[in-house]
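Can anyone check this?
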Amino acid sequence: MNAGRHLGMDWLRIGAFALLIFYHIGMYFVHWDWHVKIADPLEWTAIPMLATNGWRLALLFLVSGYASAALAGKLGGAGAFARSRSARLLIPLAFGIVVVVPPQPWIELMGQHGYAHSFLHFWTSDYFRFGKLDGIVLPTWQHLWFVVYLWVYTMLAAFLLAVIPAEARAKAADGAARLLGGWGLLIVPMLWWLAVYGAFPDHDETHALFDDGPSHLHYLAAFGVGWLLRVRPLLFEAVARCWKVAAVLAVLAFLPIGWVEWTWPGDTRAPDWAVTLFHVARQVQGWATIVALVGVADRFWNRDHRWRATLAEAVFPFYIIHQTIIVVVGWHLRQADVAALPSFLILLATTATGCWLFYAIGRTIGWLRPLIGLQRK
């Protein structure tokens, strides 16, 4: 085990990004709107998709908060931390917006809006319009919105590190750790999520940064808890106390979520009370699942393996490229009218292979490393 490093949180980060890739493959089959869809969406796929929908992104912010706190402690200063995170996040973000993402809106425009021009014409003439084309804002960051939000949150953390004296930060961390001690780690963030939903029940995530305030309140809580787990590791004792109960609660809370989707599937309008039940259960299930997964990572995964370091490095390049692969391959599968099962197997194989090639080639070329989110050698 690496001194001072919680390897279970490494594995949790790896698993969270792997789940995200599976989820986006699932978006090809489910009836929800997306860039490209199978000809006949499968209604039942919404149930397993909803099982992860309430916590998969917040889990990414939690493990990112933990990793950010570790890096801030290693670098030892707010300025160095801000510079490091900006280089590791903004450079691949710019590369992604300019090079990686454009096939996604091009395919969406062709498939859903009748766009008739080639990709080269789209990229050179329409993509950098800094406006809308058939309702799609171009250029766009698409799935890389997570990188944008994470950079904003880390800059906020760097600002607080710079303006708040170390003694005051320590007292605040101690107070937060006392609040979250015992069962507080399960209860307090869950109540916060419920309060955010109660205050903004009609908000839909936009991923557009400036009009997404309730989402920031939601994700910043997870980021903050992740940070606190790093700077006050005694909180893992609270995790150990409540993670099994959290796992049971997560399963029970998913029952009304699945029932509402099963009873009013697809675009069927559910009554208001069922919508409220769905979203309240979603907040409970979401946070309870995160606590349970952190508990599993702490109890069972805090050990090394020869693949851990490689996978931990690979997950960010995988994240950058995976959705474009899924959308491009999905477009060709849709054009060929391939059935659901072979489509899933093809998407899984091509996405895994493409992600690995993107990482394996990029890490060997010095000038490509920062573009795909890796440190320079």
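Reply from J.R.: I decoded it. The chain has one domain: 7-129+141-372.
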